[in-house]
Amino acid sequence: MKDFIEHALSVARSKSARYADIRIIDRREQVVSVKNGNVDGIGDQDSQGFGVRVLVNDSWGFASSAYLSKAEIERVTALAVQIANASATVPGDRVDLGEPVSTTGTYTTPIEVDPFSISLEDKLDLLFRADAIMRRNAGVRVTESNTLAVRIHKFFANTEGAFLDQVIYECGGAIAATAVNDAEVQIRSYPNSFRYQGTGGWEYVTGADFIGNSERVAEEAVKLLFADVCPTTTTSLILGSSQLALQIHESCGHPTELDRVFGTEAALAGRSFLTTDKRNNLQYGSGIVNLTADSVRSTGLGTFGWDDEGIPASSTPLVKDGRFVGYLMSRETASKLGETSNGCMRAENWNRIPLIRMTNVSLEPGTWELEDLIADTDDGIFMETNRSWSIDDLRLNFQFGTEIGYEIRNGKRGRMLKNCTYAGITPEFWNSCDAITNAKHWTLWGTPNCGKGEPMQTMGTGHGASPARFRNVKVGIFQ
Amino acid sequence: MNFREIADLVMHESRATETEVLALEQDEDLTRFANNCIHQNVNERNIQITVRSVIGTKVGIAVSNDPRPDSLRALTARAFEVARLQPDNPEFKGLPEAQTLERVAAFDTSVAECSPEDRAKRAGVICRRAAAASCSAAGSLTTSALSIGVANSKGVFAEHRSTLADLSTVIMGDNSSGWAQRTGWRLDSLEPEPLADEALYKVRLGKDPVDFAAGDYPVILDPYATADILEMLAFDGMGALAVQEGRSWMNGRIGQRIMAESVSIIDDGLSTQSIPWPFDFEGVSKKVLPIVASGVAMTPVYDSFTASREEGKLSTGHATPPSPQGRFGPAPMNLFLRPGSATLDDMIRSTKLGLYITRFWYTRTVHPRDAVVTGMTRDGTFVVRDGEIAHAVKSLRFTQSYVEALKNTEAIGSTPVLLRSALGGATSVPALKSGQFRFTSSTR
Question: Which residue in A122, B51, B204, B282 could disulfide with B319, CB within 3.0 to 4.6 Å?
């Protein structure tokens, strides 16, 4: 492998690249899914190949191929240089990557049980048992469950001397029941609307207790058909931790991506309201709001040894005591601020360039017990488990829907509510946060389906949160 | 190896009762620009080979991007092993039989061989026009050559080559922006100058937007926004799987007039006015399929699995690629909204108070059975008052049933635009006026 890598870098140097890196990746994914008592999908998906990124003067080029051979490496590297030279005909600013990166080492996700060592029979058995329990409820129309295992073996090297060898394991899964009547569809899922995924081994799946939650999930799906509709009002909102995790992803994670701030994602994902003049000046949230980006927390989907520019995993405050203080950065964007990268460049696979992506962007826990928080709320709604999500291109105006909600009256959780939605404006919403529950209620969730870039890249990100309360929130949109 | 060799090897190696191999080979280039310069510029050469192995009613799938003979043998064996160990699935009735397939020309050498220099030249036109207007352009130009091959042990053998070219740009001024996009399989369908001019027109028109109260208004939609309506309706319920599971807007509405009489939606995978695919990912031939005819919901699209669940149904040629992740279900990839006779000016002149919208953004389903969708307007939202565009307003959030929006259709434009679809094909749509659309909030 080292020969291939050195050859690519040598070809890039010989063609006047002032910087080049190569990633060679072997990715294996195994999915087992069951639907309505039958196997819906099962099997392995393998992908291997390499990508070469070059910087010629101040212009970038990238080429990639599934065919790993010396001749193909020469073709691809030469093509990357040709592409970079073409980029130079529509030039931009000087590219400064900051200090050279010459990290070396190996990293493997700590796992207890290799998910590929579990037989497909055993995986099917788990899902069939959960499925059978959900189907015992005659009101359920569709039952679904799945497990997923991913292993990514990635070599990274650059012309500055970096050479890294990482093996990342991811695991996840879900169960869901859908109930249908003449007018509507209601779904309940567990643990988190098909977003339960993290770095780890098979223990990540077994720790979720699909079997123990199957009956409840089915019951709640059916009960939702008969539940009252979420009222249209302005009230106190308590978000469950998985819904809050997605709120963080959309309204904090994305706007702190520095490439969005500098306009390089304007055509697709959009820009950001968190422009550089707001750093250290904007009161993003209330004083109890502390948001952190890290790539070191165990089981996070944004946890690794080094990012795809060879920057070591780290932890960075984004919002401290409510004040906006930090960005997610690459080498190139960090140097524009006179800083060094905090290691957020990540590529979906060998055939994509790294982009600034969230690592694990989390809301740090507060001090409240959940029971005390509910008891302290005279009038409000508790919402949990995401069902729909939408936010504008500056990451200001958002609207979310959840699978389920509960009315809170006089400090007590009351009737079930369906079709729950809430909407707001990001800084107003986070400044209305007046209570966050403590570490006992904090969970590091995954968002495995974050889309960004052209060609589109899907990335897994992590988000930790514990339930929190927000005041004066509009709920019940379009009822 | 060419596809014939791949298919022969897989069929020869397979021990299954039925076997299918699907190969998608792609050579794609994408030049991306922002801040009036090219900042990302990439190429990918890849192949994805999917083997579906059937033992009785058990189905195993394995996917790889390694076409070497040893890897193909291992892939075939793996799909067989996956099928072997699972229980029977009585719902699976077998792979499709061979059919006579039409051939459709959809390959433009000038797209397949488009050089990085040529792409840069086209991107540069937009960047320079934006810079000359003291604006900032961002966008992308994709040129892609794709080969698809499907073969199965029941005699299906289908091959097709196509190209795809897509150019889009958002041009930004001080406090406004404009969008323009075109898609085609020919390179000459993408001319950067008119696209830049279209986006710059919206930048100028959109200057100094003001707040506007949320509420119900008539809307005039550019084709970009109309395309979102069709694609979300497709995503949320034009497939038979969604209907069979009771989660489609077509449930309980088939045979009923649910949209305005002027609304006819077809899927046509054979039309060279789209990005044609003469067969689906199971090798079943495409045809013209009316999904909504004169406002009446006609039928969802089927693949062989969903067709076999209903008496007398045949696949309509809309299978999506088999995946270990489970069935996405059939989907239309070449939607057409039948053009009307109105011009954009007609629609504006006929509006006393309404909104003219460039495109929708980040749309997501809120209530699937009624196709209620929320999203934002983007890159140009304008108040129309007394038959004229009065001024720009800040982007608005809507929460609206797309079925109801088409029920309230008052006019459809005469000039369709072809746009790349998130479902993998392309959508042909003109502008459209709907008499009522619900806006639920505005942004800052």
Answer: B282
State whether A86 and B91 contact (CB < 8 Å). Answer: no
- Average pLDDT, integer, range A195-208: 96
Instruction: From residue B146, give the alpha-carbon distance in Å to each of A91, A279, B28.
Output: 30, 45, 8
Centre a 10 Å sphere on the Cβ of residue B192 and count the other Cβ atoms it contains. Answer: 22
Task: Give the DSSP H or E segment for B352.
Answer: none
Both tokens of A129, joined, read: 């048992």
| Distance (Å, whole) CA B54 – CA B66 | 22
Contact A399 B58 (CB under 8 A): no
Q: How far apart are CA B114 and CA B111, in angstroms?
A: 5
A65 CB near a chain B CB, below 8 Å?
yes
Write down the mean pLDDT value for chain A. Answer: 97
Candidates B140, B43, B356; CA nearest to A266 is B140
Measure A288 CA to nearest chain B CA, in Å. 25
For B201-237, what is each residue's pLDDT tens digit? 999 999 999 999 999 999 999 999 999 999 999 998 9
Over residues A254-282, the pLDDT tens digits come to 999 999 999 999 999 999 999 999 999 99
Backbone angles phi, psi at A24, to 5 degrees: -115, 125
φ, ψ of residue A7 to 5 degrees: the values are -65, -45
Q: Between chains, do A65 and B142 touch, taking CB under 8 Å as contact?
A: no
Q: Which of A166, A162, A144, A143 is nearest to A154 (CA)?
A: A166
Judged by a CB distance cut-off of 8 A, whether residue B175 touches chain A is no
Q: Are B61 and B322 in contact (CB under 8 A)?
A: yes
Q: Which residues contact residue B346 at a Cβ distance below 8 angstroms, ignoring those fewer than 6 apart?
A: B411
Average pLDDT over residues A41-62: 95
Which residues have CB under 8 Å from A416's CB, separation 6+? A220, A223, A224, A227, A228, A404, A405, A406
- Residue pair A445/A465 in contact (Cβ under 8 Å)? The answer is yes
CB within 8 Å of A277: residues ≥ 6 apart? none
Cβ contacts (< 8 Å) between B136 and chain A: which residues?
Answer: 263, 266
Q: Which residue has the tokens 């979906």?
A: A348
CA B188, CA B250: separation in Å to the nearest integer? Answer: 38
Helix (H) / strand (E) element for A144: namely strand A140-158
Which of A128, A145, A392 best probes binding to B when mutated, by most B CB atoms within 10 angstroms? Answer: A392
**Nearest to residue A442, comparing CAs of A362, A375, A323, A377?**
A362
Tokens of B406: 């088409």
Nearest-by-CA chain A residue for B137 = A267
The answer for A 108-127 residues in CB contact with B (under 8 A) is 120-121, 124
CA A432 to chain centre: 25
What single DSSP character describes residue A17? -
Of B38, B363, B395, the CB nearest to A390: B363
Structure tokens at A371: 């029971």
CA distance B337 to chain A (A): 25
Peptide bond into A467 cis (omega under 30): no
Q: Kindly determine whether residue B365 and residue A423, on different chains, have CB atoms separated by under 8 Å.
A: no
In the predicted structure, residue B326 carries a pLDDT above the cut 90: no
Strands A433-436 and A420-425: unpaired
Amino acid symbol at B323: S
DSSP state of B300: -
pLDDT at B444: 67
pLDDT band, very low/low/confident/very high, at B426 (cuts 50, 70, 90): very high
Of the candidates A201, A248, A185, A193, the one whose C-alpha atom is nearest the C-alpha of residue A466 is A248
Selection from A236, A224, A49 nearest residue A152 by Cα: A49
ipTM, interface predicted TM-score of the complex: 0.95
Residues 185-214 of B with CB under 8 A from A: none
How does pLDDT run across B253-281, given as a tens digit for each residue?
999 999 999 999 999 999 999 999 999 99
Position B71 scores a pLDDT of 96
- Identify the H or E element spanning A381: strand A379-391
